[in-house]
């Protein structure tokens, strides 16, 4: 670890920070997939298994400080489009996830995904990093109930003079001050401070249901213990999902996770400097193979696709530079297969602080974009704003690819269009059309 200029203590603290920023997936993923008539407790167990397996493999094999878990967005596609829209059973949808994992694996083995990453223009790489920063910042504000729905303007700010907003802002400022003072474990201390500060809400004033994720009503837990449910393990209908009518579902699973994973790896590498000597994301091939195995594994154990988590930026900002960060986070997932009710202890306004602050750090790569060159600035800008505005990494980066290629084509700069990027842009158009 001396070569990475880090210590075991730093790596462990970084792993804890990443886990605290990402643990919501243990409850949120089952809440979404239960809409596909899947047992909540079974998906919860599967979510823990995928998160632990993917993160441990990322740490031990790829040696990167990146957590892997079931991806947000693709789980909604699984439940509301694949199952409710296309009419797949959840067993067939799990089979589609499995086959998308097989495709990932083949693309990774033949280094196709690496070639895709190499074809992404440098400006778009910087834009993806900044777009991810805005995206996770937006998620943080939403989870904190600081940004809320507004019928007139789509989104708006919550009432400033309410205990939830004031508690969130107090925690945000205290955590920010700890970071400025370069306190080791600042984000963890900030989350603990905000958790303690939030406890009186709903007891002395305000509404406690708005502080936490509010998912506890979906499961009838007794005390702090809940036995794991392995009922979804090996329930995937692998052969049944290969029907011609379902190929488009497999394609969307493949495309979405492919570009979610690529954009996450590229964004984290650009924002943190974790790169190989050639400028590509560090240990990229092994990381992509980990991503592929996590998706394949997810289909087998009963969850939507696994992918690299953008919340890993929290641990990286805390100083995590090696696989020990991912290993720490992966191990922390395992106890919640038995003690999932403990997740309700940390309120969303506390964990959201990490997302907002890390979002501010990830905006730095915008300074590396040459904003005076329109055919680079416009696609970069579209990528940055559309990742959070569309609430989708894959949609934002797809539009970035398409706009880059079209502007180069229409401005007569066809020699600057990478052939692989041209193919990706065509596939992106197909994806956006779905």
UniProtKB/TrEMBL annotation:
The keyword Membrane applies. InterPro entries: Azg-like, NCS2. Pfam families: Xan_ur_permease. It is a multi-pass membrane protein. The chain crosses the membrane at residues 12-32, 38-60, 67-87, 93-110, 122-142, 162-180, 187-205, 246-268, 288-310, 345-366, 378-405, 417-433. Keywords: Membrane, Transmembrane, Transmembrane helix, Transport. It is found in: Endomembrane system. The keyword Lyase does not apply. Belongs to the nucleobase:cation symporter-2 (NCS2) (TC 2.A.40) family. Azg-like subfamily. This is NCS2 family permease. It comes from Fontibacter flavus.
């Amino acid at each position: 670890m001396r070569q990475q200029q880090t210590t075991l203590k730093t790596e462990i603290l970084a792993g804890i920070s990443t886990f605290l920023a990402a643990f919501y997936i243990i409850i949120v993923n089952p809440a979404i997939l239960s809409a596909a008539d899947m047992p909540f407790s079974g998906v919860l167990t599967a979510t823990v298994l995928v998160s632990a397996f993917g993160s441990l493999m990322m740490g031990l094999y790829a040696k990167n400080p990146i957590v892997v878990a079931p991806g947000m967005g693709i789980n909604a596609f699984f439940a509301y489009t694949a199952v409710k829209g296309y009419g797949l059973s959840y067993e067939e949808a799990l089979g589609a996830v499995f086959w998308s994992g097989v495709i990932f694996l083949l693309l990774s083995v033949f280094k196709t995904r690496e070639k895709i990453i190499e074809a992404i223009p440098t400006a778009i790489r910087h834009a993806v990093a900044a777009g991810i920063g805005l995206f996770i910042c937006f998620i943080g504000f939403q989870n904190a109930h600081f940004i809320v729905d507004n019928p007139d303007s789509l989104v708006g700010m919550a009432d400033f003079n309410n205990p939830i907003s004031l508690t969130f802002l107090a925690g945000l400022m205290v955590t920010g001050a700890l970071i400025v003072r370069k306190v080791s474990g600042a984000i963890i201390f900030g989350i603990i401070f905000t958790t303690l500060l939030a406890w009186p809400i709903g007891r002395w004033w305000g509404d406690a249901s708005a502080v936490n994720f509010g998912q506890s009503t979906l499961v009838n837990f007794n005390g702090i213990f809940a036995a794991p449910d392995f009922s979804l393990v090996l329930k995937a209908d692998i052969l049944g999902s290969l029907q011609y009518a379902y190929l488009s579902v497999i394609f969307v699973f493949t495309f979405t996770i492919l570009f979610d994973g690529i954009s996450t790896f590229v964004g984290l590498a650009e924002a943190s400097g974790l790169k190989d000597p050639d400028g590509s994301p560090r240990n990229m091939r092994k990381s992509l193979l980990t991503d592929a195995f996590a998706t394949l594994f997810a289909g087998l154990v009963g969850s939507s696709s696994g992918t690299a988590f953008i919340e890993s930026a929290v641990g990286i900002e805390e100083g995590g530079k090696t696989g020990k960060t991912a290993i720490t986070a992966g191990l922390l997932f395992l106890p919640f297969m038995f003690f999932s009710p403990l997740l309700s202890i940390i309120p969303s306004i506390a964990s959201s602080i990490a997302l907002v602050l890390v979002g501010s750090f990830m905006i730095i790569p915008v300074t590396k974009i040459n904003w005076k060159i329109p055919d680079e600035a416009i696609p970069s800008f579209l990528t940055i704003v559309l990742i959070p505005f569309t609430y989708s990494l894959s949609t934002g980066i797809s539009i970035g690819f398409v706009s880059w290629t079209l502007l180069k084509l229409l401005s007569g700069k066809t020699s600057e269009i990478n052939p692989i990027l041209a193919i990706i842009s065509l596939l992106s158009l197909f994806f956006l059309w779905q």
